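Troubleshooting: if your tokenizer reports a length mismatch, compare against these two reference records.
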Amino acid sequence: MYDCALGKAFMTRLLVSLCACSLLLAAGSPVLGDCPANRTFVVTNSYDIDGEPAPELFVTVGYTYTFQLNNPSSHPFMLTASPNGGAGTSALPLSSGVSCVCQGCGTCTRRTITFTPAASLAGQTVYYQCTVHVVMGNAIHIAPAPAITVNTLPQPLNRCAGESAQFTVSATSNETQTLSYQWRKGADAVVNLSGHIAGATSPVLTITGLTTQDAGAYTCVMTAPCKTVTTAPAALAVNTCCPADLGMRSGVAGSDGVLDNNDFIAFIDLYFAGDPRADRGGQGGVPGADAEFDNNDFVVYINEYFAGC
């Protein structure tokens, strides 16, 4: 009984052995999941790689792939949008990132073609083909360049000693793996310290009980398997503040070195927001936080205000 599949395979191998522009791409061709890199492919008269005919290629926008044509045939080699190839097939235009249209057809002066996929080809598939024989090449899948998009940047902070500071970053990656984070102060990696620093390797860095030693420029390094991005520095200023200096112009929370109505406005806003900065007094108006918001906080704050700085 004739086995159609085996017959088809045999005829394919026979055609392959007869076609002078059959292709072999050198061992080490990239596979899906590798980080992108500039690569060189050697085109020869054989058609298989490890027994597999016409390997599919995975390339990335912006990287350069060189096809070295060690094929003695005069049949033109080209990159094309056609899965078939053969006579009448159009090569990719120069605007797609090819160095020349096709080897052997008058547009390439050397036996190499380089391909630096244009951004417009991201997510598409093109093909390497012979212009004489059909279906001799295979697919080239084009991935977008690895990218990390930063949606929220850490902002500069101005805090008093003893208060808390929090830096936040938000980002996404077009790679499948989760981003990793590392906060840095200047050139040094921030490390977690119980009761003082938390989130050194997370999107949110929290520093409590600030001291002047915490002041500096903070950045976040975000890393995906094939891409790393560092945010612009965000400064943390730590001041020795007057305890009652809570408000700036228009009652915006923050220290401005002046005691006035803005401080009362800021205190009231912080109080009703449940902000720890308004937790000033315990039972009987004794200074100190007690995790409760009541009249004792007002008593202590008023005493601090009239005590001045």
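Reference record two:
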Amino acid sequence: MREKYLEPLLDEDPERWRKDVEPLLDQIEAYAIETDFGLNRRRRKLKTPANEAERFLRRAQQYQEMGETTQAKPVIMYKVGTTPVARQAAMSHTGSLAGRHELYSAAVRQAGGIEVGTVSQMIDAAKILGFSKKRPTNKRVAIVTHTLGPALIAAQILETRGAQLPPPAEETSAAIQDMLGMPVEIDITNPVDLLAQGWARPDIFAGAYELVMKEPQYGSVMIMFSPNYQEEIGGAMPVEAIVEIASKSDKTVVAVLNSPVCRPPTGREIMENGGIPVFSSPERAASALANTLKLTDVS
């Protein structure tokens, strides 16, 4: 209990807690263990804290309750009142929203929750967690695409948000090069760019995707495709193969179909029914995936 809840709380705001709380930490820990953070069997709240030690115990209790909740299901939090003006306005409406943002963030992080910065980020993160029942196991992400520009947008967002994009293993890269059959050697990095062949030949896209999905180093895979609305010129995403391969893997898979929101591409419903969330822009997909990767911060 001390290492999981009490000491991290001390470290978050040492100026507040060190003088009055740290000397009493042994007694606080013993009381918390004996009384389940001061709660009886009916989970009645503590009385209004009378001193810093009791305030510290109340905050630790909140940490524990949030941690129990996040172990049962993912929790996404968006907090208002983080700027001086918003914080002052929150005080006049409901004081419970107006605490220091750094402390709220630390509590959410310590408990294993996901803090987001906008309502749309909350919706998008919930979309991934809702459609995909598989959770990221690490921060390493692979992007498979035939259109490098949008993929680089996603890669940049992911990297700036703490994700890692290592290249595929040498044997994987060599196998993908053979699939492409280019007259000159093409470096296969991450994002894995399948060029025009990946768009024109669904078997190449599916084959490269399957190779990447088999790599144990990645915890998540993002696929990116520009749908074809003119079937007579060829080019199609191998939707059924993508869903089948994903069903046999423990990786989180997110799809980006670069298309207008008002014109959902063919295959979107099949993928989402198969547990693969589909986004129409690389920015939103990358931001949502980066937020879900926060779940890997909890040991």
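Descriptive notes for reference record two:
- Residues 2-115 form one domain.
- The chain has 14 helices and seven strands.
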